[in-house]
## 1
Amino acid sequence: MSQTPSRATRTDAVTNRARILAAAGEAFAASSSASMTSIAKQAGVGVGTLYRHFPTREVLIVELYHQEIQKVIDLAHTLAASLAPLDALRRWFDEVARYGQLKYGVAEVIHAATNGGLDDENYEPFLGAIAVLLAAGVAEGTLKPGTDPEDVLLQLSVLWRIPPGPDSQKRAARILDLVIDGLRTRPSAP
C-alpha cells in the first residue's frame, strides 16, 4: 500500500485541527457559550471530526488556551527586538487584551485545568515575556526599575474580566493606559 493516502490523511487531519482551533478562537471570543456544533460548522468540518480531535469542550478550550498564550509569549520577544520599549510594551499589552476576550467566559475551564494556575506550564514563560519588555524599558530609562512581572500580570488580569461588547476594546485601552502610566518613570523633581 502506498504512503500517499496516509500522508494525505495526516495533512487533512492537521489542517482540520488548525481550522477547528481558528474557528473556536473566533467563536469563544464572540460568545463563551458557543456550541461544539457551531464551531464545527464554522470550521467547515463535521461534528465527528471535531470530536475526534477534541473529545470534550474542555479539551478544546485548554488546547486553544495553550496555542493562544504561546503566541502572546512569543510576540513579546519579537516586539522587544523590533520596537522602542514603550511601543513594544503597548503593542504587547494590546495583544494581551485581545487574548483576554478569548479567555473571558472560559476562564473557569482554564482555571480548573491548570489547578488554579498552579499547574500552568505557561505561567513562568508569560512572566518571562513581561520581564523582557520591562527590562528593555528600564534599560532605556522609560520604565521604573524593580517592577515585579507578577505585579504587572495581576494588573493585566483585569482584561479577562471585561465582558465582550461594543465598548470592550475602548475599556481595555483605557485600562492599559493606566497600567503603562503607572510603569513609566517620572522626571525628578527640581
## 2
Amino acid sequence: MYKILKQEGMAKRAHFETVHGTVETPVFMNVGTVAAIKGAVATTDLHEIGTQIELSNTYHLHVRPGDQVVKKLGGLHKFMNWDRPILTDSGGFQVFSLSKLRKIKEEGVYFNSHIDGHKIFMGPEESMQIQSNLASTIAMAFDECPSSVADRKYVQDSVDRTTRWLARCKDEMARLNEKEDTLNPQQMLFGINQGAVYDDIRIAHAKEIAKMDLDGYAVGGLAVGESHEEMYRILDSVVPYLPADKPTYLMGVGTPANILEGVSRGVDFFDCVYPSRNGRHGHVYTNFGKLNLFNAKYELDSRPIEEGCQCPACRSYSRAYIRHLLKAKEMLGMRLCVLHNLYFYNTMMTEIRQALDEGHYEDYKQQKLERMAAGPKA
C-alpha cells in the first residue's frame, strides 16, 4: 500500500508498505547487481549506513549463479542475508546495454551471455519466472529501453511492443503468485514508461500503462545519452500522466543534483551505480561537491572525507590513509569510499524526506545545489 503523507508542488513524501517492510520515500535504492554491492560491502554494512531497499538484476543473477539455485536456497533475501525490500530489474536494460549480443523479436530477446557466450532467451514470461524464483519484493516489467537517439518510428514500434510485453508480464505474475511453490506470492509488479526523448510518445504510453492498475510505475530510458535538460523536460511532461496514488520510479538516475530535481518532479524511487562506481575509483561525494582522493594534495590530509559525516570511513579514517590504501590498491580503500558515498546518498534522502515533512523542500534543494556547486573546501 502506498500512502502520500505530504506534498509540496509535485514533490511527494510517502510511505510504501511491502511484505518485506515499509519504504519511506523519496528513497535511493542501493545497487547490488549480482546480489552484492561492488566494493566489498556486506548487507550488514547496508543496515549501518541506513539502506532501506536494495536493487539486484534479473539477467545477471539468471546467468550466475542461476535463479533456480537462488530459489533452492530460499530466495534472494535468504541468499544474501537481507531482511528489507529488494527490487529486481527485469533484464530489460540489458536489451539496451548488451545491444551487440542480442536480437529482439516479438516473443522476447535472444542474448548471447556476456560471460561465456551461451545462448539465452528472455521474454516477459521468462523474466517474471526468474524474478519469482528470486522472490524479490518488487519485480520490474520486461521492456526494451530504446536509445535516446533512435528514430521516431523505431521508438514508436519499440514502445508498442513494450506495452504488449507489459500485459504478458501482468498475466504471468498473476499466474505465478497463485502457485503453491512460489516463494513470495505477494510479489509486486512495476510497469515502465518508455519513449526516448519524444514527449508525445511518452505521454501516450503513460496513459496506456496507467490503465493496467499496477503496483507502481517507472520512467525508463533516461540517463542513457540525453542531456539533463531533456531528462527534466520529459519528467515534467510524463509524470503528471502516471497514477499519482502509486509510487513513481526514475530508473538509473543519478547524480545528487538529478535526484533533487527528480523529487521536485514527483519521483519516489531512484537507483544509480554512481556512488559505488565512483567510490571504487576514489571519487567521493561531499556537501561541497566531489573529491578525488588520488590527488596529491590529500597525501598529508588528516581530516575525514567530510567533517561531521558519521559514515564508517569518516568516523575512523583520514583522507591521507584512504588515499594511501587506494594508491596501494588495497581493497579497504575502495570499500571505505563506497560506504561513504552510499551513506552520503542515503543521508541526503533522509534530509529530503525531513524537508518535505517540514514543508520547505524547495529551500533545502536550492541550498544543497548551491553548496555542491560551490566546490570542495580547501
## 3
Amino acid sequence: MTDEVLSNEGERLVGSRAEQIQAILESDIFSGKLAPGARLDEVDLATRFNVSRTPVREALRHLASAGLIQIRNRQPAQVVQLSAHRLIEMFQVMAELEGLCARLAARRITAQELEGLRALHTQLIELARTDKVEAFYEINRLFHEGIYAASQNEFLAEQTRALRNRIGAYRRLVTQRPSRRRDTLREHEDVLRCLAEGDDGGAAEAMRGHVNLLGEKLLDFLALFPKDMGRAA
C-alpha cells in the first residue's frame, strides 16, 4: 500500500470518528444533556471517546459551523447560550416555518398520515396526565415531524428541523410547565381540525400561534431564565 493511500485512509478514519463524536455531542445538546453554557474541554472529550484530540477538534469545528457551540481562544468550547432577545427572534422564524409546513400539509396530507398524527395526539393526551415530561416532549417532537413530512417539501422540512434543533433545549425547558403541556393539546387539536378540513390558511395560523411566543406565553418563557440572560450570545 503506498504512502498516499495510507494517508488517505488515515484521513478517512479520522473523519469517520469525528462524525461519530459530532453526532453524539449533537444528540447531547439537542436532548439538553449538554445544557446551554456547558463547557466542552478537548482533553476531557478525547478521554471520554478514547481518541486523540484531532477527531475531537474536527467534531467541535463542525458543531461551531452549525451554530451549536462557540470555540474560544485558549478556553474550552462552550454550548451556545442564546439571549432572550435572540431566542424570541428564532421562535418567530420557527413559527413561520412550521406554519408553512402546516399550510402545505393541509393541502397534501394523506389519510394515513392524518391518522398517524391523531394517534400521536392521543398518546400526548395520556402523557399529559402523568409526570413523564421527557416522553411528552419526544411524542410532541414526532407530532411536528409528521407535519413536516406531510408538507411533502424536503427542503422546508430540513430547514425547519435545523432551526428546531438549535432551540430544542429551550423548547424542552418550556415543556416542563404543566400548563404548557395542556395548552399544547388544545393547540394541536386546532391544527388537526384544519388539516382534516384541508383548511391551509387555518392550519398555518394555528401552527404559528402554537409555536410563537406571544402574550402570556412570552412572559412565562422569560420567567424561566436568569435575569442576566440578555448578555448571552
## 4
Amino acid sequence: MIYPLFSGVSLSFTTFSGVGEAKWTGLDNYQTIFTDSVYLKILSNTLIYSAFVVVFQNGIGLAIASMLNGLPKVRSLFRTALLVPSMVSLVIAGYVWQYLYSPLGGGLNEALAALGLKSVQQIWLGDPSIALIAVAAVHVWMYIGYSAAIFLAGYAGISSELQDAARMDGATRWKRFRFIEFPLLAPALTVNITLATINSLKSFEFPYIMTGGGPDGATMTLGLKVIKLLFNEYKFGLAAALSVVLIVMVASIGLVQNAYLRRREDRI
C-alpha cells in the first residue's frame, strides 16, 4: 500500500499517457484541478452526493431502528430483511435502478401514474437538476439497512431501567427518544456517520453504471473522473493528482468529523 501511494503522489507531478517516459510538470495538474470549472463542479457534485447520503442514510436508518426497537417480536426478521439490499452486487443494483428510473415504462414513473401522480413523474436520470440526487438515493437505499442494524446494536446497550423510569415519570415517546435514546446512541452515530461519509466520498460505482457521469457532467464524482481520466483519456498524471486530492479530502473530512463526534460522546 505504501509504495503505490508514494508512486501515485510522484506521478501526480507529471504528465504521462501510459507509454514512454513521464514528463515533470510540477503543480500544473493541481492547478488545473483547482482552477478549471469542470473539476470544481466535480468536487461540488461529490460533496453534495456525500452530504445527501450521510443525512438521509443515517436519518432514515435511525428512524427505522427506533421503530423496530419497540417491536421485539419482529425485530430480528426485519433487521435481516433490511440488510438484503447491501448484499446485492453493486452492478446488479445499479442496472435494476436504471430500469426503475426509466422514463419509458420504468417502475417508478409507472407507480406514480397508478397513484394518480403523473405530475410528479420525471426523467430521473436525464434531468441535470435531479440526476445526482436520484443516483445518491440508490446509495441510500442500498445501505440504509446497514445503518439501521448499527443503530439497533446501539439500542441494545441502552438500559431498560432508564426507559422504564422515563415512562413512570410520564415522558412521551418523543421525549424518551430526544433525551435518553439519541444521546446514548452517540457511539453508533459516530460509526455510522464516519462509514457513510468515507463510503460516499469515494463512490463511483452507481454514477458509472447508471449515468456514466451524465447528463452534462451532473453526476460526475471524483472517483468516477479518476477512472475516466485513466482508461478513456489516458491522462495518468492528472488522474493521480485527482486521486491525491480525493485521498486528502476523505482523510481530512473523516478526521475532523470523527474528532468532533468523539468529543460529543465524551460530553454526553
